[in-house]
Input
Amino acid sequence: MLEISKDGDSAIVTLGLKSLLAVFKDIIPGYRIRLPTEKEQEMKVSKTVKKMRFYESTLLSTYKSYVQKLIALQKHPVYKRVAVRCLCTLLAAVPHFNFRESLLTAVMTNIISQDDVVRKLCCATVKSLFTDEGKHDGEATLEAVKMIAELVKANNCQLHPDSVEVLLSLSFDEDLGKSEKSDMDKRAKNKKSKKRKVSDEPNQITDNERKKTRKEMMLKTREEVNADFKAASSGQDPQERRRMQTQTLAAVFQIFFRILKHAIQPSSEASPVSGASRSHPLLDPCLNGIGKFSHLIDLDFMADLMHCLRKLAGNGSKLGDSSGKASCQLSVSERLRCCIVAFKVMKNNLDALNIDLQEFFVQFYNLILEYRPGRDDGEVLAEALKIMLCDDRQHDMQRAAAFIKRLATFSLCFGSAESMAALVTVKHLLMKNVKCRNLLENDAGGGSVAGAISKYQPHVMDPNLSGALASVLWELNLLMKHYHPSVSAIASSISTMHTSNNQVYHSHVSPQQAYLELSQENKSFAPSTDTKRATNKKRRGNDYVPFKVGTDLDLMGQTDVNEIRKKLSEHFLLLRDIQENERLRSEFERTKMSLNLYESYKNQKKRKTR
Output
């Protein structure tokens, strides 16, 4: 088979590589082969052992040649995809076998490939390693994570997001680092109790007590033997598994913190590689990973993490800095993700942390104005609304009123899906803050509970200083006439909250659900239009023919594009000729005037000479 794969025909080489792959998948044993040493070879063994040794050595040498052949062929463009597919299949099928390091190195070098097919195939293989650790006891996982860390460091965080997104497939024990402490505490307690018993017991022990102690010792030894047997039969030692997971988790957070520090650097210091779409391609998967594994972060690094997130959410600039110079240029979606991750970290470590999140509220309050549909991700905005404003959190009355007013204004400017998510949040805040329902009053001077600030200031950056309680939600009157029936229905329900006798409201829809449902509905939604128009003044005699919405699109599809181009070119040529005629006419008039002046000048000169 190896000789066939050296043929000059690419089709024969491909078939030979695939055939060898199928053969090796079937015959590779479920253990790692260890070749005998020189002393072991000198020892006398049976024929069966000699036969097994010969078979294993032959299999290992052939497998080594096949792996080396694949690694060499992946450098050729013709065989690259076939060789990478064979390498990935071997690594996913037999990660416990020999030469795993060679396979893993070849796969990890292609995880940053520019070829989408090769890169996605390698990423899928690495994810399968992470999810199925029973085949390799976590050793391949640790090696792969360390290789990703080296790639991120060597390429200065300028890689494809897929190379770091594979880390989200990792899974860690929830009691990582806790069981070891409990075992140590139990051992210490047992030692103390034994010492006390020995000091208190008399030297004389009866025969019955000796028999009891012997029985207890026998039972303990049997339990220990059974426990050791179960641990050996099930596979990996729990302490070894804990050690491997601890090292893997440390390497993962090393990658995440390196990406965060790179994102904080000024744009002039960051050196993006050629072909990169933006300067921080790894920031999105990094933030997703921090949010997923936030409950496993060491508390010693929590302050630095929150400082990095606070700086990224502010785009590298401090609050109140009007210079407009930001050290890192991030999109609105990325800055919103930083706020979301900060709240997730706080939620998962609520008992151990005491950090003020006011600055994240200020950044989110200002990011709402910077959001643009189409450019920014609406799902991220809806998730931020849910986590920061709706998830069982008591807000200050001034802050809640400021967000209610800003979200109501926001709903007037953007699409129906974003407006629906914002109005669901407004309803949730009004349900939790009863005094904020004074914004629904129609007083000329604003709500009846204005607070310390008597005038609404919409341009203030801090929501606590905006004085939103002195304003009125006049936006709801316009939103009740929204073209989408869902938006108009929720706007009308919000406007009647202060007049309803029943003060208990229930909200079963989150901003995320509202956004997703309306965004999917908008794909097939067409606003209802009235075909009977009262525009009789625009009719021109009997030539007026009303038509339904959408018929103009059908007419455009039926017309010939070349004919339209021809008519448009003729039209613009005619316009150009008219402009040229006007220019020539004005030039002719100027020349004619200058000639008349010259004639009058000559006549005057003749009269003087006479």
Observations:
- The chain has a mean pLDDT of 80.
- The CA atoms of residues 477 and 542 lie 40 Å apart.
- The radius of gyration is 38 Å.
- The chain has 23 helices and no strands.
